[in-house]
From TrEMBL:
Keywords: Aminotransferase, Transferase. Pfam families: Aminotran_1_2. This is Aminotransferase class I/classII large domain-containing protein. The keyword Metal-binding does not apply. PANTHER family: AMINO ACID AMINOTRANSFERASE, L-GLUTAMINE--4-(METHYLSULFANYL)-2-OXOBUTANOATE AMINOTRANSFERASE. Its cofactor is pyridoxal 5'-phosphate. It comes from Bacillus safensis. Residues 34-88 form the Aminotransferase class I/classII large domain.
Length: 116
């Protein structure tokens, strides 16, 4: 079997900080520490049954087994508009205002597009 060695560039890369932190957390958990991991968004409670059921039902629907439409689903854009009205007050037209659905990376872009 051929052994594949890391390149010189790979060898020079620094160790990832989060990898080290997560290893320490895992070791502490193995040693019995009661840890609630908020760093990765891991829930500390089980997902409610009605949400699991809705996910299972959606997974069986053909339209959700493919890529979403380029401009997104209208029902989802409306849900975002409803959420913004409830949480922040402004009423937005989901057909005229847009935001990226790569939520974590582009959250500031979404807020800016809705607030302007």
């Amino acid at each position: 079997m051929v052994e594949i060695l890391p390149s010189n560039i790979m060898k020079r890369l620094p160790e990832q900080k989060f990898g080290t932190v997560f290893e320490k957390i895992a070791q502490k958990a193995q040693n019995g520490a009661n840890i609630i991991n908020l760093g990765q968004g891991n829930p500390d409670l089980p997902t409610p049954a009605h949400i699991v059921s809705a996910l299972q039902e959606a997974a069986g629907t053909l339209q959700f087994q493919q890529y979403a439409p380029f401009r997104g689903f209208d029902f989802f854009k409306q849900a975002i508009a409803d959420f913004y009205k409830k949480e922040f007050g402004p009423e937005i037209d989901p057909q005229k205002r847009g935001c990226s659905f790569q939520w974590r990376e582009n959250r500031p872009l979404c807020h800016e597009s809705v607030s302007s």
